[in-house]
Amino acid sequence: MRLIVMGQQAFGKDALSKLLDAGTDDVVAVYCEPDRDGKPIDPIKEFALEQGLPVEQPANFDDASALETLAGYKADLMVMAFVNVFVPEAARDTPTHGSICFHPSLLPLHRGPSAVNWPIIMGATKSGYSWFYPTDGLDEGDSLMQWECEIGPDDTVIDLYFKKIYPSAVDSVLAVVDHFRDGNPPHIVPDEAQATYERRCVKKHARIDWNKPVGQVYNLIRGTNPAPGAWTTLGGVEVQMCDSARLPGDGVSGKVADVSDDGVAVQCVGGRILIKRVRPAGEGKIPASEWAAAAGISKGTVLGE
């Protein structure tokens, strides 16, 4: 089959590499976002150029010339591997078999741009990914295939996405194309009554409220690790909480309950959070015990003010 691969960053590059290594299909072009001033070249673009593949970077598909260029590749399928730009129907339907798109959740759950963060923050115990037939709605459309995995009680975004979802999803791109080659790709119709949508998880969502139940605080820290990064304040100065663990214990919420070589234990409702590593403003990550010594933190110090 003649394929167009549309994507960005490491996932797009690795999906492209998987298809090229298989050698079963002919990748006729690679589409990615336009270059940004001051930003490094996108890994998928760099890799595609190394492989001698045509690279297209239209700002949008609003004009006829962009659609004509797309049609000129006479593709059978467009594989959309990690795409943040809106691709209209006219472009999606240009290949003979249309387009198929990747999303890192079990659709229709967690539609939106932070589909790995929010399940962890919300305390979900499973996630996965979907390859779906994109429509004009955000992450809407029937799914071709889905893959499910457990979210462990201590999993961070790194654990869930990079160690579980990512490697399986890259491998699955071959099965995705096989479905179309076989001529009868499945359609899994979403139950819209179960659909959820969450907006992009940004810094304002990652501020810690130490007066919340310990489970909620722990989920927020691991669900924003490494980005956007859960944070609190000490004397009005921001500090990011990185690695952490849950501990039992009672006391006044928001107060430091203990400082040790293991880190800084902070009281929440129904338990404590042991902060192991932090990132003070303008600095790199350091052990929380080192931060505590430098900042004069001791038992009874109040965080979040």
Describe this structure in words.
The protein is of the alpha/beta class and 305 residues long. Helix content is 28%, strand content 25%. The protein is built from eight helices and 15 strands. The protein has helices at residues 9-22, 43-50, 64-72, 89-92, 117-121, 157-182, 214-223, 288-295, and strands spanning 2-7, 26-31, 55-56, 77-81, 99-103, 126-132, 143-150, 230-234, 237-241, 244-247, 256-260, 263-268, 271-275, 277-280, 286-287. The strands form three sheets. It has a seven-stranded mixed beta sheet. It has a four-stranded antiparallel beta sheet with strand order 8-9-14-15. Strands 10-13-12-11 form a four-stranded antiparallel beta sheet. A hairpin with a 2-residue loop joins strand 8 (230-234) and strand 9. Helix 1 runs parallel beside helix 2 (43-50) and helix 1 (9-22) runs parallel beside helix 6 (157-182). The radius of gyration is 23 Å and the shape is elongated. The N and C termini lie far apart (60 Å). The mean pLDDT is 96.
